[in-house]
Design a protein that fits this description.
By secondary structure, the chain is of the alpha/beta class. The chain has 2 domains: 2-86, 2-Layer Sandwich (Nucleotidyltransferase, domain 5), CATH 3.30.420; 102-252, Nucleotidyltransferase, domain 5. It contains 7 helices and 10 strands. The longest helix has 31 residues, at 183-213.
Length: 260
């Protein structure tokens, strides 16, 4: 069984995988923890699903928070007796990165792109609803071409609360109407439907630009969503074709196979 770990800015998602399928999945907060705290937490999560430490034969980690990566690596070595494979420079991905500075592209974005291209077998746009919302574009030949980065839903909600004197902090929620009858429902409507509009417009433009770049291809360009809010927000977006909350975990599994 392979343990895959996706360390994001807000949450860390872990998965226990067999034959490319996610058997068990956990989500924890990304906060500073000691090596021992992380190690004990990993053992407890596995034990809760009756998974023995000996059942884990490998670990693959994607991390966009360098300050917590060392603790994860050390915890894996100390408690699971495995030196994890960390997604980073020099790793084989099977995907050429066609950007101005490939080293600037976040590990999680490449992982998502690899998984989405393998699944769609053609041009694809990946929308990741994380702390930041990212859109990543892959051409029909499997090249990573770049994308767009926008503030995440929760960042937008937090900014609205912090930068106004009288507006309250509101929960992320889909509203039936865009015309709110009170301050809270008005804020929720503006945030939710405004965010749907933002994602749809960016995804639409990404698809159009991909079509322009590969005029002779003629294939449909798929759009796949992942991330913590993919189900809540993604289902209202007209440009999103599929939702896969485990896309990053599947990408980590694929990259582990390529590099071991």
């Amino acid at each position: 069984m392979l343990l895959v770990i996706d360390v994001g800015n807000t949450n860390t998602v872990l998965g226990a995988m067999e034959s490319g399928e996610v058997r068990f999945r956990w989500r924890i907060s990304t906060v500073p923890r000691t090596t021992d705290e992380l190690g004990i937490l990993l053992v407890q999560l596995l034990g809760y699903q009756n998974i023995s430490v000996d059942d884990i034969h490998g670990i693959c980690v994607s991390c966009v928070v360098p300050s917590v990566l060392y603790a994860f690596q050390k915890a894996c070595r100390r408690y699971l007796k495995i030196n994890p494979l960390v997604i980073g420079k020099g790793l084989k991905t099977g995907m050429r990165v066609r950007t101005d500075n490939p080293r600037e592209v976040g590990a999680d974005r490449i992982v998502n792109a690899v998984a989405a291209y393998r699944s769609c077998k053609g041009s694809v746009v990946v929308v990741d609803f994380g702390t930041a919302t990212t859109l990543d574009c892959v051409g029909p030949n499997g090249d990573y071409l770049g994308g767009a980065i926008a503030p995440g839903f929760r960042i937008s909600a937090e900014a609205l609360f912090l930068k106004t004197a009288k507006l309250p902090k509101v929960e992320v929620e889909k509203t039936k109407s865009v015309i709110g009858k009170n301050t809270i429902s008005s804020m929720q409507a503006g945030l939710y439907w405004g965010y749907v509009g933002l994602v749809d417009e960016l995804a639409h433009r990404c698809k159009n630009e991909l079509s322009s770049l590969f005029k002779d291809n003629g294939e449909k360009i798929h759009c796949v969503a992942t991330g913590g809010l993919a189900n809540l927000v993604g289902r209202s977006c007209k440009e999103i074709d599929d939702i896969d909350e485990s896309l990053t975990l599947k990408g980590l599994w694929l990259l582990y196979q390529i590099n071991t």
